[in-house]
Amino acid sequence: MESKRYPVALVAADAAPRTKPSNYPEPFASRMAGRVKRALGDRFGLTNFGVNLTRLAPGAVSALRHVHGAQDEFIYVLEGQPALITDAGEQMLSPGMCAGFKAGTGDGHQLVNRTQADVVYLEVGDRTPGDTAVYPDDDLQAILVEGQWHFLHKDGSPY
User: Is the CB of residue 109 less than 8 Å from the CB of residue 64?
Assistant: First the structure.
């Protein structure tokens, strides 16, 4: 049996963007317009954690404001000035700044590009089986089952 061959190195911006812009069900998926993710970790066959090079056009958001039950997340800003929205409020970030979100804290977070220039950042998250996500501003929750997100209303009924 032949194993898949992965590159040793690549130019991150040359990696193909994800073919499906969002895993969210509607009406949430369309709110991700202007976000382009390049799944760099997948290009190298990484399975313990994911790395995305993400570009937000003016007016775009990184994700719905969310918090993970089991997954730690980290972002590092490369270009632009996104607003980081958390339960504590809003903080402007700039190139060279980073932020981390410990699993299970209950502190929802997202990036919003309120400027006229693109924002580019790296996002890193582990791939803990059985992770959950809660979206405090929306009627949405998610459960990670065998590597796939399943989305539910907050009352538990499926989308």
Answer: no
Domains identified in the chain and CATH numbers: 21-128 (2.60.120.10)
Q: Is the pLDDT of residue 1 over 60?
A: no
Angle at 126 between CA 121 and CA 132, to 5 degrees: 105
Cβ–Cβ contacts within 10 Å for residue 92, how many? Answer: 11
The pTM of this model reads: 0.93
* pLDDT (tens digit per residue) in 40-54: 999 999 999 999 999
DSSP 30: G
CA distance 138 to 153: 9
C-alpha distance from residue 119 to each of 73, 100, 149 (Å): 18, 18, 26
Which pLDDT belongs to residue 2? 60
- What distance in Å separates the CA atoms of residue 75 and residue 73, rounded to the nearest whole number? 7
Task: Please say whether the beta carbons of 136 and 95 come within 8 A.
Answer: no
Q: Report which of 107, 103, 99, 108 is spatially closest to residue 63, judged by C-alpha positions.
A: 108
